[in-house]
What we know:
Blueprint: H1 2-14, H2 16-43, H3 48-65, E1 73-74, H4 80-111, H5 115-119, H6 123-146, H7 157-167, H8 173-190, H9 198-216, H10 225-228, E2 230-233, E3 236-239, H11 266-298, H12 304-317, E4 327-328, H13 330-338, H14 345-365, H15 370-384, H16 387-396, H17 399-414, H18 417-439, E5 441-445, E6 460-466, H19 474-478, E7 490-497, H20 503-518, E8 522-526, H21 530-538, E9 548-551, H22 554-569
Parallel strand pairs: 6-7, 7-8, 8-9
Antiparallel strand pairs: 1-4, 2-3, 5-6
Helix pairs in contact: 2-3, 2-13, 2-14, 2-15, 3-12, 3-14, 4-11, 4-12, 6-7, 6-15, 6-16, 6-17, 8-9, 8-15, 11-12, 11-13, 11-18, 17-18
Amino acid sequence: MSFTFSVARLRQExxxxxxxxxxFAGITVGIVALPLSMALAIASGVAPQHxxxxxxxxxxxxxxxxGSRVNISGPTxxxxxxxxxxxxxxxxxxxxxxxxxxxxxxxxxxxxxxxxFIEVVxxxxxxxxxxxxxxxxxxxQIKDFFGLEIASLEGHYLQNLxxxxxxxxxxxxxxxxxxxxTLAVLLLxxxxxxxxxxxxxxxxxxxxxxxxxxLIFADFHVVTIGSRFQYTIDGVAGSGIPPFAPAFVWPWELxxxxxxxxxxxxxxxxxxxxxxxxxxxxxxxxxxxCAVIADGMAGTRHDxxxxxxxxxxxNIVAPFFGGVPATAAIARTATNIRAGATSPVSxxxxxxxxxxxxxxxxxxxxxxxxxxxxxxxxxVAWNMSEAKHxxxxxxxxxxxxxxxxxTCFSMTVLFDMTVAVAVGISLAALLFIRRxxxxxxxxxxxxxxxxxxEGLPDYVAIYDVNGPLFFGAAHKALxxxxxxxxxxxxxxxxxxxxxxxxxxxxxxxxxLTKHMARNRIHVIVNQLxxxxxTKLQRAGVxxxxxxxxxxxxxxxxxxxASELHVRLRTAMPV
Length: 574
């Protein structure tokens, strides 16, 4: 049946109207991804071709192995904050090995079925991350946008910001003019709602105008990809982007920060593990968030665990072709869907389009001004900044959510994403635990407070126990149960609203029931789910012949309490 379905599905997707729509979508998103991939590679501290290699290899492999039919994967702005420090410290070799390690982690996360868990990361955490990343990316583009004379941007954010401010007197009018024109065209063309991507129009106008101005004015010179980047492959030297397809290479043979092969050792893997974890966590968040948005736009339904595995495989394969870490990109995926994509065919076409562009247009791509690419990334930074949502959370959210938002934002900007991911997820977990603890509690029901216990005898105490009973909440919820009246002989724990019972809660209940047994008090647990009753029985809390038993209704518990009281009063064995 599955084979018949697969063949039928294949025939449907290869039907010319569907195939044509996906071919068009793939070419459209390829036009968008081509300059973005180069710009993001440069922003990550590596040569532009490595961004293109990533878009080709990771884009195709992830689409074929992932759980979303329309996601477009490749280098993304979200990774820049993590990748740039790795490049400065460990070079291209350390960067691709970090991506390879992150890919293994992503596959393990998908195999462990953590896809749904990733999707429940609180909104203030994701907005804090993305807004912080946007600020850092935008700040780092000032150098090329204004043509400032700065050797490199290394170190902490405030240190780099101070260096940029000090370098402002060195700005070059030609670069600023080119960047401003490109940015203006990007913004204006985007408002036209045209089918032609604004990135293409912006770069054509910006590059063309810069070339024209250089012909008119002798001193009008802009920094381009060709003037900044050079390559030597098999003895062939050139500038800009090598006009060759990505070739297989062992990641550990790529250069470190000093230009020597980075090598492979346990020490290096141990050093890069924290960065790899941050890349994997952020990649998982980005890809699944992108898949959710894509489902809403395209009416599809993704498999989150398969998507994590696909992203992992893409990040495992890409480093062997010089690719940097990749994940699904929301902007490119949205472009893909709006262009009519319905299947992974569009992502494959997008990768093939970029490959053809490398082979045929490498010399032309070398003329792209760095200021124009900086303008492109400034637009990307603004789109991912979530400024509207950021200020809305600050304005209307509860205090805890505001604190998490601002903490994640400041950690991302002032420190690095490795620290920000760890702190953000930890704060979100602590907030969840605290709110869960607040839901847990126990209240003694009094006869005049509840119609069902009207006329309750003095020897029976009923406690309404609520919420999840886990390590943070068990003691709080159950501590009042140890202080019952001296005439009490039966305690009924009414627990229909208990949703969780962990080992801490089981031990707490065990100690409580032992204390009551010493005082000849019997315990009836009412309306606890069978799954949790089994847990208590396995732990020996409700052993046969003990002072703990279970009931399925409050009425049954009250009848049983009366029987127990008669037996206790006449000294009969229970």
